[in-house]
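Standup notes, structure subgroup. Blocker cleared on the S-adenosylmethionine input:
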Amino acid sequence: MEDALTRAVIRLRAAGCVFAEEEAAILREAAPTEAVLDDLVERRAAGEPLEQVVGHADFCGLRVHLRPGVFVPRVRSALLVRLAVEAAKPGAVLVDLCCGSGALGLAARRSVDVTLHGADLDPVAVDCARDNYRRHGLDPGDVHRGDLYTALPGALRGTVDVLIANVPYVATRHIPFLPAEARDHEPREALDGGADGLDLFRRVAAGAPDWLAPGGLLLSEITEAQEETAVRIVTGNGLTATVLQDDDLDARAIVTRRTHP
Ligand SMILES: C[S@@+](CC[C@H](N)C(=O)[O-])C[C@H]1O[C@@H](n2cnc3c(N)ncnc32)[C@H](O)[C@@H]1O
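Run returned:
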C-alpha cells in the first residue's frame, strides 16, 4: 500500500491538489485495496469533491454519508445548526427543508431531542438523507420528497417550531465563478437561486406563516448582498427578521420569526 500511497500523492500533486499528502492519506483510509485507492485518486484528480469520493463528510462532529451528486455540507452551515439548537426545546418539531444529505437537521438533533423531518426535491438527495436518518437511528420515512412544503405531511402545518431552509442561494450570474468542485459535481438545482439568488427563499418565506407554529423560527443562509432584499421579503410576509453574522465561519443567516398567533 506504501507504493500506492506515494503514487497517490504524486498524482494528486500533478492534478494541482494543494493538500496532496493529507488527501492521499484520507483516500487510503477509505480504500480497502490498492486498486480501489487508484480509482479514488483518479476521481479526486478529476476534480470530484473529496467528500463525495470517500462517501462521507464530517459536519459539526457528525459523520454524514454522501454520494456523488449530493451537495456537500459546508462548514459555514454550522451557524444554522447553532441557531436551531439555541431555539429548539426538547420535543420541538424541527423541519430541515432542502435537506440534501440531511446533515443540518441531524447535527441539530445531536444536541437537542427534537422531532425531525427532512425534505428535498432531488431523489438522490432524499435517498442519501434517508440512509443518514437510518444510520442515526431515525425513521427514514421522515425524509419526504417533493417541491418545498408540498413534500411535508399536512399534519405539520402550523406546528413547525424551527424550520431550517438552506435553500440554493447563489445568484445565477455567479455560478460560473464557483469552485469547479461545486460547479461540476453538485447539481445546478442545489446551487442556483435565480437572478438574485432569492427565488427559493421567496417561496419559503411566503409559506412560512402557514407552516411555522406561533413563535416558530425560519433559519436560512444568505449573502451580504442579499440582506436588504431578504429582510424585505420576510417582513412583507408579516414575519420579523434579524440578520446574524459569524465571521469565524464566514456565515450570515436570516432569522425569521412568526410572532402572530
Ligand atoms: C444548498 S443545498 C443544501 C443542502 C443541505 N441543506 C446542506 O446544507 O447540506 C440545497 C438543496 O435544496 C434542494 N432543492 C432545490 N430546489 C428544491 C425545491 N424546489 N424543493 C425542495 N428541495 C429543493 C437541492 O436538491 C439541494 O439538496
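Discussed briefly. Strands lie at 56-59, 62-65, 93-97, 115-120, 143-145, 160-165, 212-221, 240-246, 251-257.
Next: hand off to the docking folks.
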